[in-house]
UniProtKB/TrEMBL annotation:
Domain of life: Eukaryota
Organism: Tursiops truncatus (Atlantic bottle-nosed dolphin)
Subcellular locations according to the entry: Cell membrane, Sarcolemma; Cytoplasm, Cytoskeleton
Cellular component, GO annotation: cytoskeleton; sarcoglycan complex; sarcolemma
InterPro entries: Sarcoglycan (IPR006875), Sarcoglycan_gamma/delta/zeta (IPR039972)
The family this protein is said to belong to: Belongs to the sarcoglycan beta/delta/gamma/zeta family.
Recorded topology in the membrane: Single-pass type II membrane protein
Coiled-coil annotated spans: none
Alphabetical keyword list: Cell membrane, Cytoplasm, Cytoskeleton, Disulfide bond, Glycoprotein, Membrane, Signal-anchor, Transmembrane, Transmembrane helix
Name of the molecule in the record: Delta-sarcoglycan
UniProt-listed GO biological process terms: cardiac muscle tissue development; heart contraction
Stretches that traverse the bilayer: 33-56
Main location: membrane
Amino acid sequence: MPQEQYTHHRSTMPSSEGPQVYKVGIYGWRKRCLYFFVLLLMILILVNLAMTIWILKVMNFTIDGMGNLRITEKGLKLEGDSEFLQPLYAKEIQSRPGNALYFKSARNVTVNILNEQTKVLTQLITGPKAVEAYGNKFEVKTVSGKLLFSADSNEVVVGAERLRVLGAEGTVFPKSIETPNVRADPFKELRLESPTRSLVMEAPKGVEINAEAGNMEATCRTELRLESKDGEIKLDAAKIKLPRLPHGSYTPTGTRQKVFEICVCANGRLFLSQAGTGSTCQINTSVCL
């Protein structure tokens, strides 16, 4: 009982000291640093927002795309010149209707066709010095599908109705050529020439040489041979002249005539012999030697 009274008395005694106040928060240099960082963060956010708006404006970002790039239902649409620094993979590239499609490069433009194993099957290279195409076969066709030109490892086919060579030096064939008809342009000369070797024309059913409105000339250095194995050689003309045939000897005492007969040696050589009352070919057999 006395102890309880003492406790109560102590608790009811008025305190001579004032109430104690505890401060909660950041004060002093910490508060200034916090305000500085908050201000710096706001400045960075504003600068970032301004840069983003500037980039959107410069790059011309819209709901439909960016700059010259537009997103459509059929794919991507580029307007104006476009530059790709990395490889471009696309299923189809086409220009706008009525406009041309240009591919520009400082060195070359290469088009590759790959298989499933990424192996090059066909390659087209357009460079500053040449245009090269690699493939098993090369074909050129018309819109209707008619073959105009074809080339592979076995043969080269020209499907056009007419092949014209406009070079001043003509056309050179190191090997043989097979054709049913060789014809020059109207009012132009046709020349078949072999400067250093022989010129041979063969056909299983004959060779026809025809000049409708001009002369025909065959010139060689050594021999000119017309050969028919199973048929005949026909020279059909109003006049046939052999101006350089060798002449056989004639008798000085006899009257020299201007009439000759054509004689044939056993080896096929022709020569002229002065005509007489009878054949004079036997007198000039020395020409056949």
